[in-house]
Amino acid sequence: MTDTTKTSGISRRTMLKGAAAATAGAAIGTGAITGFPTIWAQNPITLRQFGTGVSNLNAIAEKCKADLGITLEMTATDSDAAAQRAVTQPDSYDIADIEYWILKKVFPTGVIQPMDVSKLTYYDKIVPLFKTGKLTPDSVIAQGTAPHTVGYVDGPDSTTFATGETGWFTMVPTIYNADTLGIRPDLVGRPISSWADIMDPAFKGKTAIINVPSIGIMDAAMICEAMGVITYGDKGNMTQAEIDTTINFLIKAKQDGQFRAFWKSFDESVNLMASGEVVIQSMWSPAVAAVRSKGVACTYQPLKEGYRSWGGGLGLAAHLEGAQLDAAYEYINWYTSGWVGGYLNRQGYYSAAMDTAKEHMSADEWGYWIEGKPAVGDILSPDGAVMEKAGAVRDGGSFEERMGKVACWNSVMDEDRYMVTRWNEFIAA
Predict the structure, then answer these.
(1) Confidence (pTM)
(2) Which CATH superfamily, name and number, covers 179-306+379-428?
(3) Angle at the Cα of 237 (from 416 to 108), degrees rounded to 5?
C-alpha cells in the first residue's frame, strides 16, 4: 500500500535550493520552462496514483521515472474500492486513475479539480468519442454513462457536469475498451453469437459474471434483453421495476445452478477460464490474452447485440498545487504522448490518443490491434511473449468495428443505491 498521509503542496522556494533555482521554480508555474525532466530529476517529485489493476502497471511507473524523473507510487484496487477511496481518502492520492462511471459518483464531491485543457499538449489528439460521444459523425451515442456526459465542467471551481465541450476536463481519458463474453472454444462445443448464450442450460455450472454491481448489472441487462426477458428504456439508467426484473432473473438463474462463480479481479477471471472451470463468462480483453498466453484456447467473442464498453482516465486531486500540480500536468502530457498508448494498445485496450500511440507501434502491430488486419509476423505482448501467431486476426476486427458497436457504457443509475442493494441480494442468494 502507498502512504496514506497527506502530502502538503511543496512551495517552489522550499523545493528549489538557491536563488537561481528559485527563479527557475517561479518560471515553472508560468509555463516558461518546459524542460521538466531535468527539473524533476534535480528536485524529486513523487505522485501517488491509485486505480484498478488494468492500468496501474509497474512498467508505466518505471518508464515515467526514466523519462521524466517523476516517481509514481501506484496502488491497484478493484473498481468499487477505487470509488470509495476517491471520496473518503482524498488526501491519500495525487492522481485518481478511475473509470468514467466512477467519476459520476466522485467528481460532484469536489475531491478532484477540473483540468485546464490549454495545458494538455495532446488534447487535439483525443478521439472524439470522449468529446462528443460519437466515434464517427454518424455514430449513435450508446446508452449508459457515456464518457462525454461527465467529461466537462464549466470552470475551475465547478462540481457539476457541463452539457458539452468546454475548456475544463473532469479528467483526461487514457484507456477504454469494448467488452464482451470470453469463451473457451474448445469446451463450449458450438458457435456463440449472443449474450443469451451464457444462459444455455448446456453450460450449467460453467458460467461466470463480474461481481462489480455497476458493471455486472450492465452485462445482466445485455443478457436479459438478448433473451427477450425485458426491453429497457435505458439499460444504463433502469427504473426500480427494471432492476427488479433483472435481479430476479439472475437470482433464479443462480438458484438453478447456472453460475460457477462471480469474479472481481482480473486474475480470478483468468484462472477460472484457464482451468476450464468456466467455459463462458464476462471478461476483459487482456484477460483473454493472458489465458491464450498460457497456451489455452480462449476467444473474446463478438456478439450480435454489440459490446458493453468502459473508459477510464487520470484526474487531479483537489489538493494539488504548485510544483506538484505542474508535475502532474507534465506526467499527464507524457502519458498521452504515445509510449503508454502503444503499451496499452498491445494488451488489447485502446489509447485515447491514437495518433501518438501509432508512432510507438510497428506497422504490423498497428495493423493487427487497430486496423483488424491479419498479423504479418508473430504478435508479441509488452513483455515480449508471443501472444498471436502470424496470420491471426483480432477478435471482433478493427477499432472502428469494435467501438462502433457499443450498445451501452458502464453506468451509475439514478437508482444506484437500490440497484446495489438488490445486486447484493443476488450475490447472497
Answers:
(1) 0.85
(2) Periplasmic binding protein-like II (3.40.190.10)
(3) 55
